[in-house]
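Before surveying the methods themselves, let us examine one representative protein, pairing a chain with its fold in token form.
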Amino acid sequence: MSNMTITDLSVAWDVDSLSRAVVALSAKSVSADWENARHQHRKAQLIYSARGILNCEVEDGVWIVPPQCAIWIPGDLPHSARGAGETECYCLFVEPDATPDLPTTCCTISVSPLLRELLLRAAGFPALYPPGGREERLIAALLDELAAAPVEDLHLPMPRDPRLRRLTGMLLADPTDKTAKADWATRIGMSERSMSRLLLHDIGMSFGRWRRQLHVILALQRLTRGESVQRVAMELGYENASGFVTMFRKAVGKPPARYLSDRLSGAARASTPGIVLPDATPPDTE
């Protein structure tokens, strides 16, 4: 079997039937949006975005994969994936016992230049590459790099409580809604205090922090497609670009243009932090 390159990213592939411990493939979507419906497989999966924004949804949250970043999905975990516009990604499927020290939970990881080159090289191998050869040795080095890759925080957690699910669903449907926290609590039939306490227990975030995380994720999707900061700020309900940039800098540590410039720079690819929301978040007043 030749190397695996696919052009229809909406198709689920039966990777578990392939007898190698690790299988790599490359995938491209040159223009149209695509979605891979909810599915699962025995092999764990790494999805690396070389171009475009990818989204992956599991039961307890949504993960965003910006360019030069990757998501790790443990084996047997139901998930769906989608991309917007022009995307290019590389996938690695790994048997659970292929190597120790791989992540056991869903996470986004920073991709070093070495890991990137190993992944791109592996994507050119035949799916049934000969055991004991140079391909297998390179795969072993790739797994070593993957196990050592730093984890990033590009996660939008989703609560399990049905009332909080309604809350997050309404915010996802209209991220520009500026309704006060107390009014949101009334909408879902809770007191403000109970809603705040349950949010912290269910997802480990305050209401304001979750909404900021949502706005950063949506902003990254649009900015990566080439939309201006001004337009993104207006579409997310900010009165001006300055207020949006202040929010973004608070969440990420740098303004949007600098973040994207560093993310897309080969020199910074290994060292640029992801979206990290500090534990010491000031109390919300909204």
